[in-house]
Amino acid sequence: MSGQSITDRIAAAQHSMTGSAISKAVCKATTHEVSGPKKKHLDYLIHCTNEMNVSIPQLADTLFERTANSSWVVVFKALITSHHLMMYGNERLIQYLASRNTLFNLNNFLDKGALQGYDMSTFIRRYSRYLNEKAMSYRLVAVDFTKMKRGIDGVMRSMNTEKLIKTLPIIQNQLDALLDFQANPNELTNGVINSAFMLLFKDSIRLFAAYNEGVINLLEKYFDMKKTQCKDALDIYKKFLYRMTKLSEFLKVAEQVGIDQGDIPDLSQAPSSLLEALEQHLASLEGKKTKELNADTRASTLSSAVSTLSTTGMSFSRMDEKEKQQALEEEQARLQALKVTPSSADLLIKCVFFFRLHARVCFPPSGFDALGDLLKPTMPAHAAPLPPPQMAIHHGGKLLANDLDSSLANLVGSECPDMQWNQQGEKKLTGGHNWQNKTMSTTQWGPAPMAPAPLAFPMTPPQVPVYGMVPPQMGQMGGVPVMAAQPMMYNQPVLRPTNPFAPMPGAQVSYPVLVHSYAQNDTFATEKVFNSDVS
């Protein structure tokens, strides 16, 4: 399985339509593509954790929803994304995860539908247990061990005895969950599990560094503790030696898969004589007869052990310094990219292009030169060139055109003399070719001659005959002969428009008058009645 699936593309499109940028970023980071989440999506989600208007519960719920998928790739990448945000995101996220009653419930996860489903499902179950333990550790101590301050004045070195004895077992449990991942070099075969292993490697270095400093503080206070405290401290130290051995095996795997040797710390165990001195001191507190070392021998043994563990702790800080240097270089690269800004001339050129493009949208030209300069609209071959626009004198002494494009071109040309602008005149929206603005000095008022409106064609009122009336062609009215109504027809055959009331261009519409025919007998009777009524 490679590349984004159709399901991933559809899900991303749905989130784009709904406007949920966080859901879209989570979907993009947890695709079916067999590779680690992309850095740009992780960086965006980290930025979201630092924004106060972003809902952290919504972000966490979106990640939990992705872990409910049936594909091992999607679930694994959702866990990787969650781990990445816990490491590099705002502390609000891990605070919310620590406050939840349930986190990643993947103890029974199994993907049977993929080729690597069985093997990868095993690592998913182990990985989810570690993330749950990481959140549980934060709930118990309200601090992330991988982010706490280290050194002589660090948190673990300055902790009192009681709190130290309670805190070190919590670090042990988290480290045990991490080392239980147990991935062999032959099992790190794809980009997904490699990304998870890299995050676990970084956590193991920081977590064991805090663990190492806590043990140093414990050893320095051991010979001043009470009997019960010494018993707990001795048990913690024995477990520490065992976990150091397991961590060395984990680091060998990291070295075999290609992690830089300079990033892998050197683990140096304290001399075995220190363990004997600790056991003898506890036995003496319990009342057992043992050979206890004198004060000088005990002090020298303790000093040698602390020096050895301190050297180990210093080697852990190399990876942190390398990451800080890498982050600083990336930040400087971003700042350098922001410093590269366009000059004022470039800005003016962009302004001219914007206004010309806007003018084309409103009043598109008749042609466009696709291969030439974008600032030059082409003219059709049959069109005559328009006269250049008239120039106006600016108060500063520069010639400014009457249109915006030419004015901006002149301004740019004054600042950039090497640039040549060939602006063709544009047709004015008002006026003609020889139009001049004429104003009258005086106004004379007089009666305008009344002229009859021109008639397109002779029009006679329609004659509608009424029963008992004489048709016009047969009689007279008031002694004035009445012209016979001529039937009016269309001058040329045309099609009737869709709207019968709309005028038809190119055709004169005539209105035919319906002329009735009368029988001759009826005509004389009607004429007699009509003439008697008129007289």
From TrEMBL:
DNA-binding found in the keyword field: no
Cellular localisation: Cell membrane; Cytoplasmic vesicle, Clathrin-coated vesicle; Golgi apparatus; Membrane, Clathrin-coated pit
PROSITE patterns in alphabetical order: ENTH
Regions annotated as coiled coil: 275-341
Any one GO molecular function term: phosphatidylinositol-4,5-bisphosphate binding
Xref: Gene3D superfamilies: 1.25.40.90, ANTH domain (1.20.58.150)
GO biological process: clathrin coat assembly; clathrin-dependent endocytosis; synaptic vesicle budding from presynaptic endocytic zone membrane
Stored SUPFAM superfamilies: ENTH/VHS domain, GAT-like domain
Keyword field: Acetylation, Cell membrane, Coated pit, Coiled coil, Cytoplasmic vesicle, Endocytosis, Golgi apparatus, Isopeptide bond, Membrane, Nucleus, Phosphoprotein, Ubl conjugation
Domain ENTH: 14-145
GO cellular component: clathrin-coated pit; clathrin-coated vesicle; extrinsic component of presynaptic endocytic zone membrane; Golgi apparatus; nucleus; synaptic vesicle
Primary localization class, coarse: membrane
Assembly mode: Binds to clathrin; involves primarily the C-terminal sequences, but the full-length protein is required for full binding capacity. Binds phosphatidylinositol 4,5- bisphosphate. Interacts with PIMREG; this interaction may change the subcellular location into the nucleus. Interacts with AP2A1 (via its alpha-appendage domain). Interacts (via N-terminus) with VAMP2; VAMP3; VAMP7 and VAMP8 (Via N-terminus). Interacts with LC3/MAP1LC3A.
Function: Cytoplasmic adapter protein that plays a critical role in clathrin-mediated endocytosis which is important in processes such as internalization of cell receptors, synaptic transmission or removal of apoptotic cells. Recruits AP-2 and attaches clathrin triskelions to the cytoplasmic side of plasma membrane leading to clathrin-coated vesicles (CCVs) assembly. Furthermore, regulates clathrin-coated vesicle size and maturation by directly sensing and driving membrane curvature.
Family: Belongs to the PICALM/SNAP91 family.
UniProt protein name: Phosphatidylinositol-binding clathrin assembly protein
Organism: Cyclopterus lumpus
